[in-house]
# Entry
Amino acid sequence: MVDVVFDELKMIEKTIDEINYTVDQISYYFACDLVSMTSSDLKPLKEILVMHKIIGPEDNVTLTEINEPGTDIGSICREWHFDDDITSRITKLVEQSDGYYKMWADGSIASRGNLMSICRVLQKGEEFALLEFYICD
# Structure
C-alpha cells in the first residue's frame, strides 16, 4: 500500500483512541492492519481475523466489492459517532482507493470482549488493509 495511505490510516486510528468516542457507556474504535494478500488468496486476511478473534478458525472468508464506497463508509462513521473531520479523512481514503470490499464470514463468529465489529478491506494498488470498526462496553 502506498505508505502515505497506511500512515494516514494509522494516524486516524491513534486520533480515535485519543478522542475516546463513547456514547451511553459504549466506546467506538477503529483499527487497521496491512494485509499481505491477493484478491484470490484470502488466507492472510483470515489469519489476521482469527488472531484478533473476529472470526473462528473454521470460518470461511469472502470479499464483495462495494459499489458506493463513500456512502458505505459514511454510514459506518455516523453509526460510530465519529466527528466530521475523522469521517472526512476516512471517506477520502476510501474514495481514492482502487478497491473497497465488504467481508463475509460463514460459521460461528468468535466474539470475545467485543460487542460488535464491522470489517472492510481497502485496496490501493496491489496492497490491502483491513479496516475494523468495533465497539466495547
In short: The beta strands are 21-23, 26-35, 61-65, 99-105, 116-124, 127-136. Residues 110-114 have pLDDT under 50 and may be disordered.
